[in-house]
Every structure is written in structure tokens, then in C-alpha cells.
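Lab manual, section 2.4: Encoding a predicted structure.

Procedure: take the sequence of the chain (400 residues), apply the prediction step described in section 2.3, and record the output as C-alpha cells. A sample record is shown.
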Amino acid sequence: MNTLGITVVLGLLAGVWAQINMQQLQCDSPEAEEAALVAQDYLNGHHTHGYKYALNRIEDIKVLSKPDGNYTYFLEVDLLETNCHVLDPTPVANCTVRPKALTAVEGDCDVVLTRVGGALTVIAFKCKTEESTEDMCVGCPHLLPLNDTTALDFVHASLATFNNVTDNVTYTVLEVGRLSSQIVSGGPIYLAEYVVIEANCTDDACVPLNDATAARGICTAKGLSAAHAVDCKMFFTLMSFVDANSTATADPALPPAAHIHADSLSHKHGLRHHKLPNLHDPQLSGLLSSESAESDEVVPVAPAETAAVPAADPAAVPAADPAAVPAADPAAVPAADPAPAVDPADTASASDAPHSQERSTLNFLVKRDVPAAPASIVSGFPVVQGDLIVPFCPGRIRFF
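Recorded output:
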């Protein structure tokens, strides 16, 4: 056999092995929850604009056991935008998910994680971020492009109002988070959310301080340029932990990194919300699907274990003496079911399994993953809890 043929055979064998060792996990299991929260925190850590996202639902989770004893998880999660900016040190668990009436933003992400030595690590992810158009109400605020000129004029006017009441410090806009308008009885009004940072101002020109200790905060404003209300909340500074027994000087706690665009209030052109990063695969793992959260991948699940019942050998069973054994009542003795011997449907599905595995060899590496111990790997059947049948996946909805 030539080298090319050997390579093809080995590749097919590796693909078949991977399919056999891919298992479905229950979406609401503790292992799935652990992996989803690791993915949530990782995504927020790599999101440098806009707002943090909170886990809403685990759509799917599969685990691939590897020969070295480690595991690769393929996880599919739905996230919802919160009202906490990425620069806000508030834990995402304490943030409020934005309601549908204020135009919720949803993130649909495929995440791949590995578990090595018990520790979960994200190695790749891909996300699609969209506005929720469900249950939109008449008269509710609707989002505007982040570079809407009239709305940005309103941002300038509201910030000037805030700077007029501050002492010994002037702020400038670091990033516009949201712009929206709403029709009220007196006509349209604007609503804006934007992040401010302490600035060094000369005449009318202000430059953000390039200092980790510069004050930062988020402002919300409502109204018109000529008449409005504005409220700003500064982010608290995280204090470094200093060991009393150590003589080393603790490094200052740095706030999350943010990109400063001094040339304009917003670098987003035409977008109405800040998107999660579309793709992150630094190692070019090739484990992500071509479409986030929409893959026709079919991963086999572990079949239910059933004890094999060998068919009885007619030759090994002596014939009964009709005179010694009374005739059985047909109504009392049910006829034997020949199905357990050999099920033609099972035979057909078993013969098709290799083809199914070959068809999925390139596609099975499309989903995300979750931390799971081998003991929690179960077959792809609903879980029975008392009188209730719990769906395997997707998992529960946390918000809406």
C-alpha cells in the first residue's frame, strides 16, 4: 500500500474513533453548568467593547474522550446582554439582563474547551450577536446606530451638563454604549448610555488620561439636547490584596483594557449594538463549525445497555412427552416474541453506522464543550426523575 493510501486509511480510522468516543451530556448537569460559566467568563474577558453577557441557556454539549485521558468539550450556549459595561468590575452574576422592551441583544456562541488535569480551558470560540425582535412594543425605545449624529450631539450636551457639576475633574467620552429614541407625548426623546474617563483638557480639547488609575464611569442620559437629565456612576477601583507577611510591593490593580478612539465618539459605523468577537481560534484548531450554532452535525450517543439474550437451540431442548405434560391453555400462556432474537431494523442501523460515522468525520468538531467527569457521561435519552421526563438538551432558560 502506498503512502497516500496509508494516510487516508489512518485518517478514516481516526475519524471513526473520534465518533465512537463522542458522547452527549445532559445540558443541565453540574458539569455542563461549570463549562458554560467558564465559557461565559472567557467570552466577557475577550470582549473589549460594549456590555457583559450572561448565560441564558445551554443549547448543546458533547464531550470527546482522548487517548491521553483528557477531554475536549463542544458547547453551544445562548447569552444575553446585561447592563454592566465590560469596564465595570461588577461580577456578571450581579448584573441585570436587559429586558426585551429595551431591545435585548442575544449572543449565540460555539465554544471549544479542554479539560486537562481537571482544569477547563477555552481554546476556541465563535459567536453571532443579534438584536431580539420578539415582543417589541409600540412606544418602546428603539436602538439607533452608534454613530447617529443627532444622538451624539445629545451625548455631548449631556456630558457638558455633568462636567459643570463636577469638582476639579473633567470627563470625556471613552465609548458610546447605546443610543436609542422613544416617542412620548411631547415627541421623540433620546436615551444614551456612554462610558466616560477622566481627561486632560486644554481649552475645548480633551484627551483621555492614559493612566490605569484614571476615573472611569458610565453615564445614562434622557431627553433632548436642550433639556435632559443625566446621571453618572463611577466604577469602583479594585483594591490589590497585600500579604501582610510579604515584603514585596503589590502591583496596582489595573482596570480592564479598553480601546480609546479619540477621533470620534464611536468607531461603530451603522451598528446599533456592540457585538461579541466573531471568531477566536489562535491555535487554528479547526474545531469550530462554519456557522455558529447552526450545524447539521450528527453525533452518535451511547446506546442503552441491554443484556443480550441468546436464542435457544432447538436441538438442545428435549421434546416434551405429550402424555406427561398437560396441554397449556393458549389464553394463559402468551406466545413467545421472536423480536429479541434479531431485529432487522437494528441490523440495518448497525450496518449503516460506519457510513454515518464517515459522514460526520469532518463535522463532529463543530460544537462547544463543557467540563464533565467520565462518570457523568450518559446516553442520549431523556432523564427520568420521579414521574417527570427531563429533556436531555437544550437546558433550562434562565431569563427569557
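Check your result against the sample. The CA atoms of residues 8 and 25 lie 31 Å apart.
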